[in-house]
Design a protein that fits this description.
Largest sheet of chain A: 5 strands, parallel
Radius of gyration of chain B: 20 Å
Largest interface: A-B, 29 and 26 residues
Helix content of chain B: 25-40%
Number of strands of chain B: 12
Shape of chain A: globular
Strand order of the largest sheet of chain B: 2-1-3-4-6-5-10
Number of domains of chain B: 2
Strand content of chain B: 15-25%
Structural class of chain A: alpha/beta
CATH architecture of the largest domain in chain B: 3-Layer(aba) Sandwich
Number of helices of chain A: 10
Distance between the termini of chain A: 28 Å
CATH topology of the largest domain in chain B: Rossmann fold
Distance between the termini of chain B: 51 Å
Largest sheet of chain B: 7 strands, mixed
Oligomer: heterodimer
Helix content of chain A: 25-40%
Radius of gyration of chain A: 17 Å
Shape of chain B: globular
Strand content of chain A: 5-15%
Order of helices and strands of chain A: HHEHHHEHEEEHHEHEH
CATH class of the largest domain in chain B: Alpha Beta
Order of helices and strands of chain B: HEEHEHHEHEHEHHEEHEEHEHEHH
Structural class of chain B: alpha/beta
Chain lengths: 273, 332
């Protein structure tokens, strides 16, 4: 049984609402978080091998949110999994809670402290290699931002994982085509992105990054015994679910009042009726 | 097989957690690579990725021994080392090839002459600078036994290395002192019997006029300089710091009580190295002493073969002795 059961769309909606609430608790990277919610929900609702009751099991699959600033989506998921509570999220940005703008592995369910773009992917390669050396069938899932792909270490890692046949490494690119406050294709064009990864020896899957069923199918289609690393290019919309934020280049970090947050939550409800 | 290879291989065979990784720097692993199997990984020329991978491996409980040229190993991926290795207290060992003057004729692109300064600001980092290739075996053993990050200045030069007498440029020095070309037997044994212990500096000998503080490749030159100075009735002590960090406050403070002249000899720039270590200790203990640094200028040394570098930069024994003599004359 996957760690996340029940109606995944409803779970995704609850996670989005939690992210919005964090924007009223001193701000958060709301646009990025809303972009990756469905990617994460579909993963925890399908193939990832993770037992929330035993979050440090050595043989678990690892999840690395390399674009660490999208962490509100992860906090919301951890509430779904029972590893955090809504009360914990009330402590957003409070000292000593470890709930802040980037993930900290001191929280159960967070495997890697990320935030420095590109590092998470490199660490994921090490985790995947370590599993291989240990003859473990554990896999490593890593979510990358498309802007993050500008980091040179990403391509060092892409070369490495192909050469060392890390078939237990699955990267998911959150392809929302906006980085911070500018379009990726305007700043530093990435296309043709699929061909770039193919030429590095990766197997590429392109999917609608907000279609949970399609994402689940994409995850399930990846063979557990593969000699090739896989990358899912998830076509997403930054700020997905809230019209006033969707695709807006100035909505990366979002700071709201309590009232504004309530309005955004009503917007979410309206769209998801 | 070198002492380093010998000990690393033995430790590797006895501990399945050890993974040896390199960014295409195989010089010091050549003889053992065939025995390492799938726990040897060459990531190619990408030091950032090597540190990231090492960190992932360490998260799975591995002890990861990384290799690259010193400045590429720590400066290219400095942020990775800071965030992943140091802050997270990872069990990763950084084996830095050709540090300090050992980069010889490579030029400033390859000179790691501020590496101790960089490592010194990183929490948890232990820094080892062995006096010779013979001591590298001890260094890697200590590094693996220690749980946490360790930076080792790899020293591939044997203790038997000498600067030929003919190369000594200072006629004045040769006339003044009958210069030894090597080191007397008892001095040899002083270093080889010295034990490396984390948190401990070692007093190789006491002195009344000054103390040298030194580590790494220049240790032997300092010991020869002490012999030269002895002939001039200058009594120099030697504090040997093969484990540069963490610092040993006690040894330093005890020495300060006996003597107020300290000469730091290290193939490192003046900023951030042992000189600053010493000055910080003096301030912390509210005491003072005269501190002189003999080392590498901030913009590096002139590229040349090792012996020529040592002579050009006045890091050979006779130059060190001359410098000290003139410093003491100034005092009078």
């Amino acid at each position: 049984m996957p760690p996340l059961t029940g109606n995944l769309k409803e779970a995704a909606l609850r996670i989005r609402k939690r992210a919005v609430k964090l924007s009223a608790k001193g701000s958060c990277f709301l646009g990025s978080a809303l972009s990756v919610v469905d990617i994460i929900v579909a993963l925890y609702g399908s193939v990832i091998r993770f037992d929330p009751k035993n979050p440090y099991d050595m043989n678990r699959d690892r999840f690395v949110l390399s674009k660490g600033h999208a962490v509100p989506a992860l906090y919301g998921l951890l509430v779904e999994l029972g590893l955090l509570t809504e009360a914990h999220l009330e402590g957003h940005l409070q000292p000593d809670t470890f709930i802040y703008w980037h993930p900290n592995e001191k929280l159960p369910g967070i495997d890697v402290s990320t935030g420095s773009l590109g590092q998470g992917f490199s660490i994921a390669c090490g985790l995947a290699l370590g599993a291989k050396i240990d003859k473990s069938d554990a896999r490593v899932f890593v979510v990358l931002g498309d802007g993050e792909l500008q980091e040179g270490v990403i391509w060092e890692s892409a070369l490495f994982s192909s050469k060392y046949q890390l078939g237990n490494l699955i990267a998911i690119i959150d392809r929302n085509k906006i980085q911070a406050n500018i379009e990726t294709e305007k700043l530093m064009p990435l296309e043709p992105l699929d061909r770039k990864w193919e030429s590095f020896g990766w197997k590429v899957i392109i999917v609608d990054g907000h279609d949970i069923d399609a994402l689940k199918e994409a995850y399930k289609s990846i063979p557990s015994l593969s000699t090739k690393p896989h990358v899912i290019i998830a076509e997403t919309v930054r700020g997905k679910g809230i019209p006033s934020i969707e695709g807006k280049i100035d909505k990366w970090i979002v700071k709201t009042t309590e009232d504004e947050a309530l309005q955004l939550i009503r917007d979410l409800d309206e769209i998801n009726v | 097989m070198t002492p380093y290879e010998n000990n690393l291989l033995e430790l590797f065979r006895n501990n399945k957690s050890i993974v040896v990784i390199t960014a295409e720097n195989r010089a010091f692993l050549r003889n053992i690579i065939p025995f390492l199997g799938d726990r040897f990984i060459d990531v190619g020329i990408c030091e950032q990725n090597m540190i990231g991978i090492a960190s992932g491996l360490a998260m799975r409980g591995k002890i990861v021994i990384t290799h690259a040229l010193a400045n590429f190993l720590i400066m290219r991926p400095f942020e990775f080392i800071r965030t992943l290795v140091s802050f997270q207290n990872c069990n990763i060992k950084l084996i830095a090839a050709f540090p300090g003057i050992l980069s010889e004729a490579n030029g400033f692109t390859h000179q790691a002459i501020e590496d101790i300064a960089l490592m010194r600001i990183l929490p948890h980092m232990v820094v080892i600078s062995p006096a010779c290739s013979e001591d590298m075996g001890m260094a890697i053993k200590l590094a693996i036994e220690y749980k946490g990050p360790v930076y080792i200045r790899y020293n591939h030069i044997s203790w038997s290395f000498i600067i030929d007498e003919e190369l000594l440029p200072h006629e004045a020095a040769r006339e003044k002192f009958s210069l030894p070309t090597g080191l007397s037997e008892d001095r040899m044994s002083v270093v080889s019997s010295a034990k490396m212990e984390i948190g401990k500096y070692q007093i190789l000998r006491d002195g009344t006029d000054l103390y040298f503080i030194t580590h790494g490749i220049l240790t032997k030159q300092v010991l020869i300089a002490v012999e030269i100075l002895e002939k001039k009735s200058i009594s120099a002590g030697v504090i040997f710091t093969p484990i540069v960090l963490p610092v040993d406050n006690k040894v330093i403070i005890d020495a300060v009580k006996k003597c107020k002249y300290f000469v730091i000899v290290e193939d490192h720039i003046p900023t951030g190295g042992l000189k600053d270590v010493l000055c910080e200790i003096l301030v912390n203990y509210q005491t003072s002493a005269k501190v002189i640094h003999i080392g590498i200028p901030p913009l590096g040394f002139q590229p040349a073969l090792l012996k020529d570098v040592m002579i050009r930069e006045k890091l050979d024994a006779s130059s060190i002795a001359l410098s000290v003599e003139s410093i003491l004359e100034e005092r009078i």
